[in-house]
Specification:
279 residues; mainly alpha; ABC transporter involved in vitamin B12 uptake, BtuC; globular
Length: 279
């Protein structure tokens, strides 16, 4: 790694903020990604990310902070999805599809009420490291810290819930309440990640690090640790590539994570093949 490049990156305040936010969000999203993969909630995360566009549009319309509006919309939609599943006996995919479509349509409708080019909306769609403010870092740090502490405190219960809801209930876990909380904290984490990754790509940071870690993790704790490690590697390398090649941060992070997954998967398969030949 070019030392001059690294020192040059950190000369810019916006890159300092991007790295701080990116490192926090990589840990948060990679940690929650383990439960997303176990519970098969990737579509939920993607649906919430797109539905939160309604909140972003509302923030722009009312000249308020779009991030706070997006957080509010995401939490509301996550609760609605939960109750549609529980009270209306709809499948998860159907519930998420309804909210996904409604949120996107409402967002497009609201933004059409304000003429002209909306740069803030574009930054939420595709991510923008220039958009990270000190206030955003404070909000990201506080909410991420609270979510991570909750996950650590309830690690066993969340794991049981994601592996088998009935077993979790028999073990004394209040499954419905914990699932609602998981929906809410995942919605919050997704919206926080939108600042760097954008609506379109944020769910990738929930899935790719976990998929990479699953290749060789032998235990659940190892899966958690390695998922966070690969999430951090994807974000840090992606931000460096974004700065050096002048490309958007979101795509750079996803490409870095995907290449890391492909490389490790290839090496692991080659080594596994050689072991089988020797046997």
């Amino acid at each position: 790694m070019n030392i001059n490049l690294l020192s040059g990156i950190f000369e810019f305040p916006f890159m300092q903020r991007a790295f701080i936010a990116g490192i926090i969000l990589a840990a948060l999203l990679s940690l929650l990604g383990v439960f997303v993969v176990l519970k098969k909630m990737a579509f939920f995360a993607d649906g919430i990310a797109h539905a939160s566009l309604a909140g972003v549009a509302a923030g722009i319309i009312f000249s308020s902070d779009p991030l706070l509006w997006a957080l509010s919309a995401a939490v509301l939609f996550s609760i609605v999805i939960f109750f549609l599943e529980q009270k209306q006996s709809l499948s998860a995919d159907t519930s998420i599809g309804i909210i996904f479509s409604f949120g996107m349509a409402l967002g497009v409708f609201l933004i059409s009420l304000k003429p002209g080019y909306q740069s803030e909306l574009v930054s939420f769609l595709f991510g923008n490291i220039l958009a990270i403010r000190r206030a955003d870092i404070g909000l990201i740090g506080i909410l991420s810290g609270l979510i991570i502490l909750y996950v650590i405190k309830n690690l066993r219960s969340l794991t049981l819930l994601c592996l088998d809801k009935e077993s979790a209930y028999l073990a004394g876990v209040k499954s419905d309440r914990m699932l609602l909380i998981l929906n809410i904290i995942l919605a919050v984490a997704v919206v926080l990640g939108i600042r760097i990754m954008g609506v379109i790509l944020v769910s990738a940071l929930l899935v790719i690090p976990v998929a990479t870690a699953k290749i060789f993790s032998k235990s659940f704790i190892a899966l958690l640790i390695m998922s966070i490690f690969f999430g951090e590697a994807a974000v840090i390398s992606g931000l460096i590539i974004s700065f050096s090649k002048d490309i958007p941060a979101g795509p750079a992070i996803v490409l870095s994570g995907t290449l890391l997954f492909a490389s490790i998967s290839l090496v692991f398969n080659i080594l596994a093949g050689r072991r089988r030949v020797k046997e």
